[in-house]
Design a protein that fits this description.
CATH topology of the largest domain: Rossmann fold
CATH superfamily of the largest domain: Phosphoglycerate kinase, N-terminal domain
Number of helices: 15
Order of helices and strands: EHEHEHEHHEHEHEHEHHEEEEHEHEHEHH
CATH class of the largest domain: Alpha Beta
Helix content: 25-40%
Bound molecules: 3-phosphoglyceric acid
Number of strands: 15
Radius of gyration: 22 Å
CATH architecture of the largest domain: 3-Layer(aba) Sandwich
């Protein structure tokens, strides 16, 4: 390991800044947390820090999106899961947060509010400039150690991720340590053909990553599902009406350019399922009417994709293939996961939805690496160095001998 871990530090009585990723799916109407997997994941590192004063920090959603909300609900979930008191402060860098940190006693856990309430946390910085942000200048004085465990946001150059290691010692938490170790091992045995099965909704991020994956020889076939599949079908003029997503013209144009540049790489659905009065109705993509909304893949597409998966050397699957939370539309997601689990390839499954689905299907044991990270993992596979890992490696050089 090129990074420091919790084992490298005497943690007793230390005040620790613990950056986790508790970014959970949120019900847009009730604003309740829909899946607590990422909160559960934080427990392992929190347990290892039981003798320290721990300040937990995370983002939730993006400013302007309907999953952008405070961390009070997360504190309650964590309290229930750990069956102990979790302190919570509705502040990030202000006086209330600073006083709450100063008043901590050994063994206390304090959760700060959504980091993205602080404007700086919504921008990418160089490490030097991240260290000069108000967040890092104010808070770093209060901490002995920064523990980075937010692997799902390891691709973000935000102050809370790359700023603190510039000024205080930093190490990886339990999740980050495991992810880096497993992925490094997997990447040494990964072999062609590389098959990427990509769904999910963060389309602009995904498009950038797809290009890098192909350019870096990490994607021989890209099998598209979910919203990103719809964007490519729109670029192929197979979906006739607008999808109604942000920056639609721009993303469709990018997808169009990618298909033009790499015509043999992409596969898009040939049949789909729509929701008609609560019922699943399957149809060929060519039969779709303007008003039809895609809820899942159809059996021909599953068969087509499964054959490509069966011949893969490495398979990476990220993002559900449809509205898998609804039983009638879970078919595509579950069928593709079964194809991945039963293939002879090295397999990586990414994202909270798929992790949950795998568990329900009792197939987790058949997968080489399972991660709740989405975009960060896609970017890791391109071979690009993730900012959080770079920050941890630099910190190891700087602080190892101290
Ligand atoms: C994720 O869920 O991918 C991470 O929490 C990062 O979130 P972001 O894409 O809003 O930075």
């Amino acid at each position: 390991m090129k990074v420091l871990t919790l084992d490298d530090f005497d943690l007793k009585g230390k005040t620790v800044f613990l950056r986790v990723d508790m970014n959970c799916p949120i019900d847009p109407v009730t604003m309740e947390i829909l899946g607590t997997k990422r909160i559960e994941e934080a427990i392992e590192t929190l347990t290892a820090l039981k003798d320290a004063k721990v300040v937990v920090a995370s983002h939730q959603g993006r400013v302007g999106n309907n999953d952008y909300t405070g961390m009070d609900k997360h504190a309650k979930v964590l309290e229930k899961l750990m069956n102990r008191k979790i302190k919570y402060v509705e502040d990030v860098i202000g006086e209330a947060a600073q006083n709450a940190i100063k008043n901590l006693e050994n063994g206390d856990i304090l959760l700060l509010d959504n980091l993205r309430l602080c404007a700086e946390e919504n921008y990418e910085f160089t490490p030097e400039n991240a260290a000069k942000t108000i967040m890092v200048s104010r808070l770093s004085k209060l901490f002995d150690l920064c523990v980075l465990d937010s692997f799902p946001s390891a691709h973000r150059s935000h102050p809370s991720i790359i700023g603190f290691p510039q000024v205080i010692p930093a190490c990886a938490g339990k999740i980050a340590e495991r992810e880096v170790r497993n992925l490094d091992k997997i990447m040494t045995i990964a072999k062609a053909p590389h098959v990427i099965v990509l769904g999910g909704s963060k389309v602009p991020d995904r498009l950038e990553a797809i290009k890098l994956l192909i350019k870096n020889g990490r994607a021989d076939h890209v099998l598209l599902t979910g919203l990103i599949g719809n964007v490519f079908m729109r670029a192929q003029a197979r979906i006739k009406s607008p999808l109604g997503i942000k920056r639609e013209d721009e993303v469709v144009a990018k997808a169009h350019a990618l298909i033009g540049e790499y015509p043999d790489v992409f596969a898009t659905p040939v049949d789909i399922a729509i929701d008609k009065d609560g019922q699943r109705v399957e149809m060929d993509v060519r039969e779709m009417r303007k008003e039809d909304k895609i809820f899942d893949l159809g059996p021909k597409t599953v068969d087509y994709y499964s054959k490509i998966i069966a011949s893969a050397g490495t398979v990476f699957i990220s993002g559900p293939a449809g509205f898998f939370e609804k039983k009638e539309f879970s078919y595509g997601t579950n069928a593709l996961l079964k194809a991945v689990a039963n293939s002879m390839a090295t397999t990586i499954v990414s994202g909270g939805h798929l992790t949950t689905a795998l568990k329900q299907l009792e197939l987790s044991d058949k997968i080489e690496h399972i991660s709740t990270a989405g975009g960060a993992l896609v970017l890791y596979l391109t071979g690009e160095k993730l900012p959080m890992i770079k920050a941890l490696e630099d910190a190891a050089i700087k602080y190892r001998s101290k």
